[in-house]
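Final report, closing paragraph on structural work. Over the funding period we assembled a curated collection of sequence-structure pairs, and we close with a single example.
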Amino acid sequence: MKNNIVRVVLALCVAAPFAHAQDLTIDDFTTGKSAVLKYKGGATNTGTQTGATAHLIGGTRTTNFNIATNPLQQTSTFQFRPDGKHNQSAYIHNVAFLVGSREDMVYGYGAPMHADFSSYSGDPNGLIRVNFLGLTGDLNFNIELFTGTIYAQGGCNITANPAPFSIELPLSTFVDNGINYADINLIDVITQSGSQIGGIEFAVTSIEVSKTPKPGALPCQI
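Its predicted structure, as stored:
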């Protein structure tokens, strides 16, 4: 776990749908369906889902699930689950008891991606928002943006919250090594258990770039 990440104490947030015309969707999980992915171990458990670029930036989502420790040999499960009928599309994450894990969701491994975030990075309110349905325990959360091999990173530690909530990563607080925000080639969304006993469960309903802070959203920054 990264030591330079600060802890965010979460409170209940407004759960109503929230969108603005200038928001850019990274992933709303309405496309890119997967089966229930089941793993007991291994550093390399990879897969790729594809979908419409209006809902899945770059058209591909490449994932890796690294199961670092699993003394009881329990099964951890993950799923990308479109459910437009009930408005419950989500990435569902269930890590087993005593399991240490890291999950990477990477956008841009498919067709060359040249996403333009410059209008957001140039705005004082520019941010990346992540909308959760809930979280059962401590989670280390990071997002890395790349132009080639150069990257910028933002993140925080998040505590449990039994209700829907949103976190916002201000682009102005990213540790930036010199990326070109007009040419983002790859995005890596990283989650790691912050709990000493594992067992972390959560669901994410969408990830988006915005210039408009959401009322009740919680700051997530280094």
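Confidence is low (pLDDT under 50) at residues 1-19. DSSP finds one helix and 16 strands in the chain. We thank the funder for supporting this effort.
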